[in-house]
Design brief:
single chain, mainly alpha, 2 domains, two-stranded antiparallel ribbon, 5 helices, about 10% strand, binds zinc ion
């Protein structure tokens, strides 16, 4: 663990963090990305994989909206930072598991549709509902692809 001093790009607060991780700023709660964290997979690994399967790049506007949702809403809602941490722990393994499926294209297309429905809720001013759906979907994916009991940790 290499701890370095960073400055939050949102509020300017300076603090120490692991340079390989993503953490919530102690002052404003927004996500601060360590200089050595994997930026692309850190974005939102499941959404990024969905976008790729749909033929879109990492710069798709849907992904930018998802990142804004994470940093502006999710990270500052009750239980949000804990969910973000859990997400980054399990999401890469879920992506790996889906990528090994023979029908992975069909699974990614379905997830991309679910993801877009969530973004529609964000666009129409209902981010709480989008978060509820997202948590529910994530718990389902964990259970289905990693054998994690539903609801554990994410509630
Ligand atoms: Zn901050």
């Amino acid at each position: 663990m290499a701890s370095i001093k960073v400055q939050c790009s949102h509020c300017g607060h300076e603090f120490y963090m692991d340079e390989y991780k993503r953490v919530s700023c102690p002052r404003c709660g927004r996500v601060v990305v360590g200089p050595k964290a994997d930026q692309s997979s850190g974005a939102c690994v499941i959404a990024t994989a969905c976008a790729r399967a749909a033929g879109l790049g990492d710069d798709a506007p849907e992904l930018a909206l998802a990142r804004a949702f994470r940093d502006d809403f999710l990270a500052r809602s009750p239980g949000g930072p804990a969910f973000v941490t859990e997400y980054y722990e399990f999401a890469p393994r879920i992506v790996d598991a889906i990528d090994r499926l023979p029908d992975r294209d069909r699974v990614w297309r379905q997830l991309w549709r679910d993801f877009q429905e969530g973004l529609d809720l964000v666009r129409s001013g209902r981010p709480e509902l989008a978060l509820e759906r997202g948590k529910h979907l994530f718990a389902e994916l964990k259970q289905r692809y990693l054998g994690q009991p539903r609801g554990k940790g994410s509630a």
